[in-house]
Model the fold of this input.
Amino acid sequence: MISFGEVAKHGRGWLPVIGVNALIGSAVTLALPTVLGRSVDSIVAGTGYTRWLVVAAALIGLGIAASIVDAFAGAACVAETTAWLRHRLVRHVVRGGPGGTRDFETGDLVTRVSANATDAAQAGPALVTAIAAIAPPLGSLVLLAVIDPWLAAAFFGGVLLVILVLWTFAKRTADVSLAYQETQGRIAALLSESLTGIRTITAAGTTEREERRILGLLPELHRNGVVTWRILARSGAQAAVVGPLVLVAVLAVGGLQLVAGNITAGELFAASQYAVLGAGLGNLTGVLGELARAKAGVQRSAEVIAVEPVAHGTLTLPAGPGQLTFDGVSVVADGNVLLDNVNLDLPGGITIAVVGPSGAGKSVLAAVAARLRDPSTGQVSLDGVPLQAVSRRALRSAVGCAFERPQLVGRTVGEAIDPHAVSPIRTLAAARATHAHDFVSRLPDGYFTSLRKAPMSGGERQRLGLARAWSAGRLLVLDDATSSLDTATERQISRTLTEDRHHRTRLIVTHRPATAARADLVLWLDHGQVQAIAPHADLWHNTSYRAVFG
Done:
């Protein structure tokens, strides 16, 4: 979990600098009216004013230097805190696995990690600035009391009204800032979803409808923005009215005290400057707005951090053939039973084809076998060790996964095959085994071709996905990972899998009868339950089994 205080404190290296400069600025702000007042009295007296003018110039120079340092420290603090928070969010999202991101749309997650993290990083500097802004009015109250108690009384009454305006503004703007950020996230989620399916949208001729769907939230965003500006405008107008009242009250009382001979002209000048400081509290609406946005940003970041990451054990896998065991495994999501009390003991080193109609639970079973999601009840073991007890490194070294639509990561095609860049020889071996080398070698820069610029068909992407999974030492889980391949290439890769010289266990989700026929065993699923497990030839006599392949 993450809190506003934790984010604010993370800038601890810069916050003292910001705080010290804020104090210096406050001290200069408070000292300058008194020094200028003394200068006025000295000018009236006709003597000693040079010394006070030099002190005033020195204070002004010190204030300018403090402002420059404060601007640099504030920017550096926000930058470092943003980087820390983004790193933590990205690490948490990645380590959370598919289950950790299931409750968030992709675009919304991107908004939380990018824009909202920047808003949250303002917490420390904005908080220090808000606290430091209290010093000048408090100091003004004390110094006015020193000059004349009646001046302090007039000042205090006006400042209370300003504080009331600020309190109302802070209370109203917090909820609106959160609503605005949430709407931004929803728009980003819809846009991300549409960009993913842009070819389908274009082909279906639904571009205008998609535009309306994405931009349909703009009125809501507009309403939240208008409410924010109305609150800001109302508070600004109130402060604009109350602020001058403070100045008028102090000047009126000061004028009476000057006529009565209780204060000097210089003291009246100083009092007027202190009254301006009190009236300037109304300008804190900007700082309070930053605090509200920071609070909303922290809350949206905290919702991501609150998702429990996938916990891994510390065990390594003993030597073994890759025996896969399902012990009472059930998976329930949103009230739907995806797998129902699956009990299996699959021998190691063989090819198992997983077949079944759409919605049978094939992909869920594959995900559970690879520990891309955990079962609701029961457990899965690899060579006698529960997957949840295996360390992350040992698990990902032993188990490789390839999917129907692989997401390729890395700067180059070679990195997409071997993200860790362990060995060019291993990369080449994996590419040759999965017949990816055939097209990679024809690319302009071969394995060093930019992944973003490499022209690839769906089948070629699948071959790269297979190559990436090929280095697994114990278990290969292929979820419809050859569906986009042409028949000849699919036959070649199937032969490579079934004749795997590494003797790994191959769990292959497929819709092709030829792939099932080449497997050692076929696992037939329907409605999350195991219907049978036997060789394809034995099951082919069953009309319901044949119906699975259409």
